[in-house]
Structures are given as C-alpha cells and as structure tokens.
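tool_call: predict_structure(chain=1)
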Amino acid sequence: MSKFEIYKDTSGQYRWRFTASNGKIIAMSSESYVNKSDCQAAIALVKRDAPAAPVYDLT
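tool_result:
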C-alpha cells in the first residue's frame, strides 16, 4: 500500500515523502517545515489537489 511518511531531516525539521507500495519513494517535500502541522498541511494540499492537476509534457 502506498503511504505518506513524515520524518525529521538532519536539521531536525519535518519533511514528508510519498512511498509506493513497492517501497520506492515517488515524491517528497522540496522544503522542510519547522512545525509538524505545516508538514501535515502540505500533505493535505497534495492529496486534495493532485487528482485534478494537469500533466504537461515539456519534452
């Protein structure tokens, strides 16, 4: 089962990653968060907006 994981980076701040059911990381936060609640809000934003996000082929 795919899942979001919240973890602390080397500076002690919060980050998230999205892991596929095969264990491979397929997305991660591009920034760290001082507050865990901000990290959780970023995950909620991705979960809410991703289904409707268009795909642009820039090749």
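agent: The chain is about 25% helix and 25% strand. Proceeding to next step.
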